[in-house]
Amino acid sequence: MKGSKKLGLLAGLIILLGGFGYLVYGGIGNNLVYFLTPTELEAKGASAIGAPVRLGGQVVPGSVTWNAAALDLRFRMTDGKNVVEVHAQKAPPQMFREGMGVVVEGKMQKNGVFDASSLMVKHSNEYRPPTKGHRPEEMYRSLVRDQK
Amino acid sequence: MNASIERDYPLTPRWLTLFGWGALAFLLLSQVLGVLTSPPDRDMGDLQKIMYVHVPSAFMSLIGYAVIFVFGILYLVKRDLRYDLLAASAAQVGAVFAAATLVTGSIWARPTWNVWWTWDARLTSMAVLFLMYVGYLVLRAFTEDEIRRARWSAAIAGLGFINSGIVYMSVKWWRTIHQMQSTPGTIDPAYVRGFRMNIIAFLFVFAYFVISRYRVARVVRDVEARIEERALAPNAENVHA
Amino acid sequence: MPENWLYIAAAYGVVWSAIIGYRLFLGARRREARELVRKEVEL
User: Fold this and answer.
1) How many domains does chain B have?
2) A125 touches chain B (CB under 8 A)
3) Minimal Cα distance from B1: which residue of C?
4) Domain that holds residue B208
5) Contact with chain A for residue B141, Cβ under 8 A
């Protein structure tokens, strides 16, 4: 009984200290501006090249090319004003599709293409069933099917 | 004596037991109804169903600190330790739901956002809220003096309550991967009833847990106080010896 | 996406485990409290 209480205390302390340590180490201040928009990245000009950054925007419809054999994904991303070309050696996640919000982590290269090392999908706060005759399973597949 | 304690302040009065079973039945109904009646979402398909466990858990962990805060203030105003015990009970239950929020959120994030965890403002502030729950409970466990414990707890309650507001507003104040709060306007009517029922069901479960935990804490405190009092007071046998 | 059901099941499993777990914890605290009350009577 007394031993188990001590153990609980120790566990609590470890969670607390470990947690706060990780928060500080994880760079809490870095993440208040979680991602830059293409316009903000553009404004940085040459200084943006090679610096690791998160970039957020919308996948431009019709801009996606996916080569499954080479694991090569290319698309353009926009914030409505500027467009950035993105390249990733990643399979598109199931919610990745044209017009969807995405956040990529990576570096801008000299040739103006953003090299993404990770790819996240940002969902909106809308929840709607698909319209008649439209099965969501097919929407997941459509992206893969379109690439040849 | 034993019977009279149980009669005066039972740990599980009949109404509480009935309330507990009612809460469980309503929760089961809400969960089953939520899962069975919701059509797949056009973007995330069936994964939308995680909404009925993640969002109510998150709601409870925010409400938890509001409850702790209110009872903390009540303690400071009335100087009645029962309010402190109520706050502590809410903290324990809130901590459970905060942990559930983080874990279900992570499980939901992997297939939808394509990542288990990321340090955006919503996730970070929620992690801090969980740590504040743990911190509140650890501090209480470390503090022997009950008056000091109650005061410090009320102070942390203020910080935690402020942070719960930051968690709620984080998606509006900062750019995040987490979406903004959904409103009835952004959720299809097909999901709204199941969502609302589950929020109410979780509230019932939360209330049942807090009330139950409080009754235990109060009985333990009263009995321990009496035992201590008797140990300190010189009793008849000692005088004769 | 059949694997989505694994995520859904995991999320529901976590929350139900938390609720059942806390109820068991509560039961243990109740037993301790009753034991304490019994001890006081014996004192």
Assistant:
1) 1
2) yes
3) C41
4) 50-181+192-223
5) yes
